[in-house]
């Protein structure tokens, strides 16, 4: 599911539910020294991660579309190299 930029601002305001995570105990203990609210910290980091991955996926899709358009342009101009070898 792709999250749009407008939805990202609403993400923190959405209904919350409890989930279970298995995390390194020492890491959690150390993180608690830096953040009094680990849930909020993890949610902020997860929101950033989802946004970054969504943007990366959109960029990959745009590059693939540009590549496809380029090959379609080449095919329209010169045809397929296999056209002269087809038996159909």
Overall pLDDT:
87
Percent strand equals under 5%
Detail the poorly predicted runs: none
Straight-line N-to-C gap? 42 Å
Overall spatial form: rod-shaped
Structural class: mainly alpha
Encode the helix/strand succession as letters.
HHH
Rg (CA only): 23 Å
The largest sheet is: none
- Tally of alpha and pi helices: 3
Total number of strands: 0
Organism: Pseudorhodoferax soli
Keywords: Toxin-antitoxin system
InterPro entries: Post-segregation_anti-tox_CcdA (IPR009956)
Pfam families: CcdA
What is the gist of this entry?
It comes from Pseudorhodoferax soli. The protein is an all-alpha fold.
Tell me about this structure.
Keywords: Toxin-antitoxin system. This is Antitoxin CcdA. It is a single chain. This protein has 88 residues and is mainly alpha-helical. The chain has a domain of 57 residues. It is 66% helix and 0% strand. The longest helix has 41 residues. The radius of gyration is 23 Å and the shape is rod-shaped. The model has no long low-confidence stretch (mean pLDDT 87).
